[in-house]
Design brief:
By secondary structure, the chain is of the alpha+beta class. It folds into 2 domains: 6-134 and 273-292, Probable inorganic polyphosphate/atp-NAD kinase, domain 1 (Rossmann fold), CATH 3.40.50.10330; 137-269, Tumour Suppressor Smad4 (Sandwich). The chain is 16% helix and 36% strand. It is built from 5 helices and 19 strands. It has helices at residues 16-31, 81-91, 117-126, 198-201, 284-292; strands at 6-11, 35-40, 47-48, 74-79, 98-102, 112-113, 130-134, 137-143, 146-153, 156-161, 168-174, 180-190, 213-221, 229-232, 237-241, 247-251, 255-259, 264-269, 274-278. The strands form 3 sheets. Strands 3, 8, 9, 10, 11, 12, 13, 14, 15, 16, 17 and 18 form a 12-stranded mixed β-sheet that branches.
C-alpha cells in the first residue's frame, strides 16, 4: 500500500499545450502533498502490426504504465479523444479512474476543459467527484488455438478489406445463436460508447452508455436485409472472414492488424470497464446535443422579402 495518496498523469507528449499544462498540474498536486506518476499516452497506442514481422501476442494488460495500480486515486488525462482511448487501455486493467481534460478538438469524451483547470483541480483535491463505468471490449485474433494479437477497445472493432473498395463476406457467430452471413464492405462491432463514433457513420443507432449491449453494424451492406443489430453484451462474438484475401482490422482507430482467411476474431466484453471521473451529473442527451447537434429545435428559414 502507498503511504502517500497517488495520482496518475497521462499526457499526449506530442501536443505542446498538453505538456505545458501537465507541468502546472504536477506542481499543484505535489504542493498539496500528492505523489504524481506521469506516463505518456503513447504507451497505450498499440499501433498496427506489420504482417512481415511477428504479431503482437501480448495480452491487453501490457499497456499498463509502470507504477500504475489499483491504489491510485485517479489519473488525469490531457489530450483529445484519441488520447482518452489510449489512456483507457492503460488504466482499465488496473481499474484506475480517469479524469479527461480536453486539449484537442471535438472532445466528445472530455469531462473538462482547460478554461476550468483551477476549478477542476480544486474538486480533485476536495474529492468532490463520482465515477461512471463504461463497458470495454477485449479484441483477440486467433489462428487455431494460438492468440496472435490482442487489445482493449472502448469504442469499436472494424474489419474490412484494404483498401475499402469492394465487398467482403463474413460468417459471424454471436454467443449460442446460429451463425449469420453478411456481405458488406466491412463490419463494425461497437460498445455503447462507440455507438456515437464509426458505427454512427455506418448508419447504426445511438445507444445510451448504461445499456448492457453491443452493436453489430455492417459497412455498406450488399442487402436491404442487413442492418445494425443490438444484442446482449454477455454474448461473445466470433467473426470468420469468408474472403480469400487478407482483411484489415482496426480497433478504436489507432490499433490493428491484418486478418487472414485462416484466422478468427473473437470479441468479448472485458471484465475491466473503463472508469470515468465525473465532476458533475453526466447528462448523455445533453452531450449529444452539444457535440452532435442531436435534438436541436427546428427553426424555419425566414420568407424571402
Amino acid at each position: 500500500m502507498r503511504s502517500v495518496p497517488c495520482v496518475g498523469l497521462i499526457v499526449n507528449d506530442s501536443k505542446e499545450i498538453a505538456v505545458e499544462i501537465a507541468h502546472k498540474i504536477e506542481e499543484r498536486l505535489e504542493l498539496a502533498g500528492l505523489t504524481v506518476i506521469r506516463a505518456a499516452s503513447a504507451g497505450g497506442m498499440v499501433g498496427f502490426a506489420n504482417p512481415d514481422q511477428h504479431m503482437r501476442t501480448l495480452g491487453y494488460n501490457a499497456c499498463v504504465p509502470k507504477g500504475f495500480d489499483s491504489s491510485m486515486s485517479l489519473a488525469i488525462v490531457l489530450g483529445g479523444d484519441g488520447t482518452v482511448l489510449s489512456a483507457a487501455r492503460q488504466t482499465a486493467p488496473v481499474q484506475v479512474p480517469i479524469l479527461t481534460i480536453n486539449t484537442g478538438h471535438m472532445g466528445f469524451l472530455a469531462e473538462a476543459y482547460l478554461t476550468d483547470l483551477d476549478k477542476v483541480l480544486d474538486q480533485v483535491l476536495a474529492k468532490k467527484w463520482s465515477i461512471e463505468t463504461r463497458s470495454s471490449l477485449v479484441v483477440s485474433v486467433f489462428r487455431g488455438e494460438q492468440r496472435r494479437w490482442e487489445a482493449l477497445s472502448l469504442n469499436e472493432m472494424a474489419l474490412h478489406r484494404e483498401p475499402l473498395t469492394s465487398m467482403c463476406h463474413f460468417e459471424i457467430a454471436i454467443g449460442r445463436h446460429a451463425p449469420v452471413d453478411i456481405s458488406a464492405d466491412g463490419v463494425i462491432l461497437s460498445t455503447p460508447t462507440g455507438s456515437t463514433a464509426y458505427a454512427l457513420s455506418a448508419g447504426g443507432p445511438v445507444i445510451s452508455p448504461d445499456c448492457p449491449v453491443l452493436e453489430l453494424a455492417p459497412i455498406a451492406p450488399h442487402s436491404l436485409a442487413s442492418r445494425a443489430l443490438v444484442f446482449s453484451d454477455q454474448e461473445p462474438v466470433t467473426i470468420f472472414p469468408a474472403t480469400p484475401e487478407r482483411l484489415m482490422m482496426v480497433v478504436d482507430g489507432s490499433a490493428g492488424c491484418y486478418v487472414w482467411p485462416e484466422d478468427r476474431v473473437l470479441i468479448r466484453r472485458s471484465d475491466h470497464p473503463v472508469r470515468f471521473v465525473r465532476l458533475s451529473d453526466h447528462e448523455f442527451f445533453q452531450v449529444l446535443r452539444n457535440k452532435l447537434g442531436w435534438g436541436l429545435p427546428h427553426v424555419a428559414k425566414p420568407d424571402k422579402q
